[in-house]
Every structure is written in C-alpha cells, then in structure tokens.
Amino acid sequence: MQELEERIARDGTVKPGNVLKVDAFLNHQCDVALFDHMGAAWAEHFAGKRVDKILTIEASGIGIACMAARHFGNVPVVFAKKAQSINLDGDQYATTVYSFTKQKEFPVIVSKKYLNAGDHVLLIDDFLANGKAMQGLIELCRKAGAVIEGIGIAVEKGFQDGGKLLRDEGYDVDSLAIVDAMDPETGSITFRR
Predict the structure, then answer these.
(1) 144 annotated binding-site participant
(2) pLDDT for the residue numbered 85
(3) 166 is in an annotated binding site
(4) Binding residue per annotation — 26?
(5) N vs C: which end of the chain shows fewer Cβ within 10 Å?
(6) 81 in helix, strand or coil?
(7) 20 is in an annotated binding site
(8) What are 43-91's pLDDT values in tens digits?
(9) CB neighbours (10 Å) of residue 167?
C-alpha cells in the first residue's frame, strides 16, 4: 500500500535492534484516515471471504482493527488482553507470547463469550516480525474452534521470518507494507515491491 509506505518513509524512525518507530501515525498517535484506507485495502484483499469477527491483540492493533471492521459490515472486534484483570470473568482461552518490542513473555487472554467455535475470524495486527503475537492469536482460535480466514498486517518486517512461517503454514497473509531492510545509521528503509 503506497500510502502507508510513504508515511513510514516520511515519519518512521529506524532505531538500533531492528526497531521501526511509527508512533507518529500508527501505534501511539493514530491517523484515522490512514487506518480507514488500510481497512479498505484489507476488505479488497479478503473480498469473498466470510468474516464474522476481527481478532487482534492489545493495544496497538485495536485502532486499525476497529477501522477495518467498518469495511467488513461492522463486524465485532475482539482483542486479546495481555493481563488478567477483574473485568475478565468466566471461562477464557489463554496462551503466552513473546514480545519483540518488550523483550518478554506475556499472557494473551480472550473470554470464551467472544470467540466461539465456527466463528470466521480475520486476524489483524500492526506489526509482524517473528510472528510470535500472531501465533498466540492463532492458538486462541484453535482452542476456540474458530476458522481463520486470513491475517492482515500493517507493517511486516520481511527480513525476519514471521511472515514466511505463516505463509508456509498456509495462511493468507496480507501485509500492507513489507520492509526488506532498515539502516539505523542512515535512517533508510527499503520496501519489498
């Protein structure tokens, strides 16, 4: 998606350790018009697929998932929580994932009320690097008996193996911007065409 690539090139910052900082428009401050265009792009890619729900993980995936839901007939957005809380009551699906940006493992939890057997689910997230967060969402869907119709990613780090692993497993992964290389010294970002 050219619009997203242009925003990353203009407003993104490359940090040491393969970190791409896009908080000016994607995961701290939200560009809602851009999110809407991203949702439209995913709706076009996944046209013809049945999508009953969109599943994401807190916190950065929520905004883009909500905007995407509008393009799928205003389906519900369910987000996996990263911590147990008193608000989570009843039976739950849970697993653990390793966060690349936080450099630690954390639980991901979804109430069984909101993810059901037979649900046709589109998974959405802001970043795909090693694929650990997405594997966690896939595990929650497996536990629930939900059908994964596809995976929508805003920014994929193509030089890491998460996207390849998911595609090799047979998932339809639509990444709107795939970064092939980043240089923290020059700030240059190369996109896959």
Answers:
(1) no
(2) 61
(3) no
(4) no
(5) C
(6) strand
(7) yes
(8) 999 999 999 999 999 888 999 999 999 999 999 999 999 866 656 666 8
(9) 13
